[in-house]
Amino acid sequence: MTPTMAILLVALLAGAACSVAGVFLVLRRSAMLADAMSHSLLPGLVAGFVLANGPHLGAGFLGATAAAVVTVWLVELLTKSRLVKEDSAIGIVFPAMFAIGVVIIARYFSNAHLDTDAVLYGEIALAPFDKWIVGGTNLGPIAAWILAALLFINCVGVGTFAKELKLTTFDPGLASVLGISPTVVHYGLMTLVAVTTVAAFSAVGAILAVGLIIVPAATARLLTNRLWPTLLLSLGIGVVAGIIGSLSAMALDVSISGMIACTLGALFLLAFALSPSQGVLTQAMARRRLRHEFAARVLIMHLATHEGTPASDEESRLEHLSSEFGWPEHRVEQIVRLAESRRWVLQSGDRLRLSDEGRAEVVAFSASF
Predict the structure, then answer these.
(1) Quick one: which of 74, 161, 170, 317 has the fewest CB in 10 Å?
(2) Residue 121: alpha-carbon gap to chain centroid
(3) Residue 288: how many CB atoms within 10 A of its CB?
(4) What's the CA gap between 306 and 297, in Å, rounded?
(5) DSSP assignment, residue 130?
(6) Phi-psi label, residue 112: left if phi above 0, alpha if psi -120 to 50, beta otherwise
(7) What is the pTM for the complete model shown?
(8) What is the mean pLDDT of the chain?
(9) pLDDT (tens digit per residue) in 337-357
């Protein structure tokens, strides 16, 4: 496997594994917990380093996972006290945990191979060189195997407990009545997110791991309100961002992790602007169409009011409509074109008159009030 293919594989698997874990986190409005966990791993890594007398993948993984779970427990403890809200609890816990790790490293391990920058930012370009060799056979990057296992665990976990996760997310009261403990499910989900964060940061860094957990799910949420499509879209967005970001970074010779993050941001902005149901530009265009539709109905109501009266000739003139309603000439033209497209009015020179369809629409519109 070439280094390029290895990097693409790791990026693809990281995007897929992280995005699956993040959906219910976003739906529960607890996205910042992933960020808190990513920064709180450091004391656990230090503990694993001490227990193993040096760098050790298993010890570091267990220590970091334990630190992430402790972070969740502390946040929950502070939140349940009702003295602080969840966002404040997160802001209290994760800087404290991260600071503890930094202080210990600076004080006791300043000359050791334990770098906070590597923990935060990672370097996916180095993943192809950390190979898993069994019996002289090169099985590929270790990161790819870890992320593949993580993807399997996340898919099995979410798929197996989808009903429980759905109930406790949208109706915890009903879940309790049915014998499903929201607390147990919550800690199970947070443990899954903690494992995901820990497993992903070794390949892509903690910051990008958080981005891959949160941004695909948030983007998918803008595109659909249904659970399973959200899960599938989130997975697809994570994979696409990983591949496009990696290829773009290689072409431009820039940071791969940074370009993946930029791709995630670009995909989110596209969904934010153009989502069929929730996009900012889509809603703005829909509001514009509604204003034009309403104005066209006001126009035919005006024509119907004056139809057959001595003032009908003057009231149907385009110039008079502009001054009557305070519409600029270009807006009058737009509204008239819309009314004509609906076959509500007929234009003769600079005057308008109602069609039979227009009179029927006036009756239907009046009856709606």
Answers:
(1) 170
(2) 21
(3) 11
(4) 14
(5) S
(6) beta
(7) 0.80
(8) 84
(9) 999 999 999 988 888 889 999
Residue 29: what are its φ and ψ, rounded to 5°? 60, 40
Residues 6+ positions from 170 with CB-CB distance below 8 Å: 27
Half-sphere exposure of 78 (CA within 13 A, CB side): 16
Range 73-86 average pLDDT: 84
d(CA 298, CA 292): 10
- Give every CB contact of residue 172 below 8 A, 6+ residues apart in sequence: 182
Q: Which of 20-34, 43-57, 127-141, 198-212 has the highest mean pLDDT?
A: 20-34
Q: Which two tokens stand for residue 283?
A: 């809603």
Structure-block tokens of residue 256: 């791969």
Task: List pLDDT tens digits, range 8-30.
Answer: 898 899 899 989 888 998 998 88
- Rounded Cα distance, 60 and 92, in Å: 24
Torsion of CA 202, 206, 209, 213, to 10 degrees: 140
Does residue 106 register a pLDDT over 80?
no
Q: Say which residue, 108 or 80, is predicted with more confidence.
A: 80
DSSP letter, residue 317: B
E strands, the chain, in order: 131-134, 137-141, 345-348, 351-354
User: Residues, the chain, total?
Assistant: 369
Q: Identify whether the C-beta of residue 345 lies closer than 8 Å to the C-beta of residue 299.
A: yes
Report the candidate in 275, 148, 172 with the shortest Cα–Cα distance to residue 224: 275
Angle of the 256-274 helix axis to the 280-306 helix axis, nearest 10:
10
Please give the backbone phi and psi of residue 137, each rounded to the nearest 5 degrees, phi first: -100, 125
Closest CA to 142 of 133, 155, 153, 154: 133
